[in-house]
Each structure stands twice: as C-alpha cells, then as structure tokens.
Design a protein that fits this description.
The structure holds 2 protein chains of 2 kinds. Chain A is mainly alpha-helical. Chain A has a domain at about 10-45. Chain A is rod-shaped and about 60 Å long. Chain A has one helix at about 10-45. The longest helix of chain A is centred in the middle third of the chain and has 37 residues, at about 10-45. Chain B is mostly helical. Chain B has 9 helices and no strands. Chain B has helices at about 1-10, 15-40, 50-80, 80-115, 120-145, 145-160, 165-175, 195-235, 245-250. Chain B is globular, with a radius of gyration of 21 Å. Classes of the chains: A mainly alpha, B mainly alpha. Chains A and B meet through helix 1 of A and helix 2, helix 3, helix 4 and helix 8 of B.
C-alpha cells in the first residue's frame, strides 16, 4: 500500500468544510425564517398557514 | 420563460423538494469524495488544486443565480407580475452566498499558489464589484417603502448589475491577470485531463441541483414571509370605510400586479 502525504491539507479541508457549512447554514436559516413567519401568521390570523404552496 | 415557470412550479411541490434535497446531499457528498479521494493531484500545483472542484462550481452558481435575476427582472419589468420579483430576490440571495464562497475559496487557493490571500487582480476585483452590486440589490429592497416600488427598483438593478458578469468572465482575457484563463468555457476543447474534467462537470451538476433545491425552499419561505407581512399590515391598518377596487386590494396585499 502506498501512503502519500497531502500538501496543504488544511486549506483543502477548510475549503470543503466551509462550502458544506455555508450551504447547511443557509438551509438552516431558511428553516428558521419559515418557522418565524408561520408563528407570526398563526398569531395574527389564528390559523396555521397551509404547508403547500398556494397559487 | 415558460420553461422556468413550469420548472419552478414543479420544484415547489413537497415531493419534488424532498427529492431535490436528497439529490443535493448525494451530489455534494459524491463531489467531495471524487474531489478529495479519487482524482489525482495536479502535476504543477499538487493537492491544493482540489479546491477547484468547489471554487469553480461556486463561481458558476453565482453567475447562474445572477443570470436568473437578470431574466426574471426583465420579466417583471415587462409584465409587472410580482412572482418574477420573488424569484429574482430568491436567486440574488443564493447568488450572494455563492459569490462570497467563491471569493473565500479563491483566497484559500491563492495563499499557497500565489503566496497571498488577496491581490487586486482584474478577476478578483471585478468579482468583488459583482458581490457589492448584489449586496446593494438586497439592501435596496430594505429601503423601498412599497412592494411595487421595491420590486421596480430592484428589477432595474438586477438588469443593469448583470453587465458585470461577462466582464468578470472576460477579465482574464482583456487584462493582464494572475488568475488562470478559462479551461472549460473557452473556444475549442477544454484543456484538462479527462478525470479532472469529469469531476468538475459532476461538481457543476451537483451544485446546479443544490441551486434548484435552495431556490425551491427559498421561494416557499418568501411566500410565507409575504403572507406574514400582509397579515401584519392588515392588522395595523384601520378597516376601510368605502369599498376598495380589486386592483387596489391586490396591490395592498402585495398581490400579483404592481400598483
């Protein structure tokens, strides 16, 4: 088995981790915004908004 | 335009969104495995070149997002339908995220290869300008006091701002640049080893699926936020004394047509 050292491993791992982290964080933020909007709609109208899109 | 509309309606369903979510997860994971473990390192740059498989697709996604902002802004200015504005702002938000990622990943790549985190190179500078244009686009939306004015102003910025995208792409050709020239989107065949090219094209596909997924979720959130804003406005405003026209009611609702 050939073991090879990887140059600049820190830069590579940081790059991939930050990419995955940024997408996950944005997805989480969207979830948070949706929850906040649902709470507001429920509080003001007294009924839960439909989960499916309305056209 | 009709195709975009149909795609967005289909992607908005619960089943399609779940499917897109899983496809995004699998696609990005596979990109990571291919980019980190399967593809051989670059002969000149070594392993750090592996950052290309996230840096270039992130840039591609930023350009695509701003392209969608451009197309939907034109559609809004032509039709006045608020739906196009919702798509434009969703795409701009995702574009800004990926533009920041592009710059960050570029800095990470530049440090070991160029010896510096940042330089005022034409490609880097025009990309920062691009980011500032779309951060401005999102900021502008917080200033405008009515939904129709907000949509109109941002549509104008969405059209004019896109001018910078071809400038960013051509900057390495037009000016002396430290940044390498295009290796895939160029006249003639791509100048890349086939394994590397396959991984890069796969990453393009995975990031495009991620874009579709984030757009579908962001559009749903946008609709909820608009609904919440309408609820707040209707609670705050007093009951009208005389009947209002359908058109006025639709505009106050943040409805389908501009006022």
């Amino acid at each position: 088995m050939v073991v090879r050292t990887v140059d600049n491993l820190g830069y590579i791992i940081t790059g991939y981790a930050v990419t995955a982290g940024a997408i996950a964080a944005y997805r989480w933020q969207l979830n948070h915004r949706a929850r906040r909007a649902r709470v507001l709609i429920t509080a003001l109208s007294g009924r839960r908004p439909a989960s499916r899109r309305s056209r | 335009m009709k195709l975009l509309n149909t795609l967005l309606i289909k992607a908005g369903s619960d089943g399609a969104q779940r499917l897109l979510g899983w496809a995004t997860l699998v696609g990005l994971f596979t990109t990571g495995v291919l980019g980190l473990l399967v593809v051989p390192p670059d002969a000149a740059q070594g392993d750090v070149q592996r950052l290309m498989y996230v840096h270039v697709p992130a840039a591609w996604l930023a350009f695509t997002s701003f392209g969608v902002v451009f197309v939907t802004s034109i559609a809004y200015l032509r039709t006045g339908r608020i739906r196009w504005d919702r798509i434009a702002v969703a795409s701009a938000e995702i574009g800004v995220l990926f533009c920041v990622l592009t710059l960050f990943l570029g800095a990470l790549w530049g440090r070991p290869v160029w010896g510096t985190w940042w330089t005022w190179d034409p490609r880097l500078t025009t990309t920062v300008v691009l980011l500032l244009i779309y951060v401005g686009y999102l900021s502008l939306r917080r200033i405008a006091d009515s939904p129709s004015r907000r949509a109109h102003w941002s549509a104008v910025v969405g059209v004019v701002g896109f001018v910078d995208v071809p400038i960013v792409h051509m900057s390495v050709v037009w000016w002396r640049s430290l940044h390498q020239e295009a290796t895939v989107v160029r006249p003639g065949a791509p100048t890349m080893e086939s394994g590397m090219l396959f991984t890069l094209l796969f990453a393009f596909l995975a990031f495009s699926v991620a874009y579709g997924y984030l757009m579908a979720v962001r559009l749903r959130v946008g609709r909820l936020e608009d609904h919440a804003a309408t609820s707040v406005m209707s609670q705050a405003s007093p009951r009208p004394r005389r009947p209002v026209s359908v058109r006025t009611a639709a505009a106050a609702d943040g409805g389908e047509n501009r006022g």
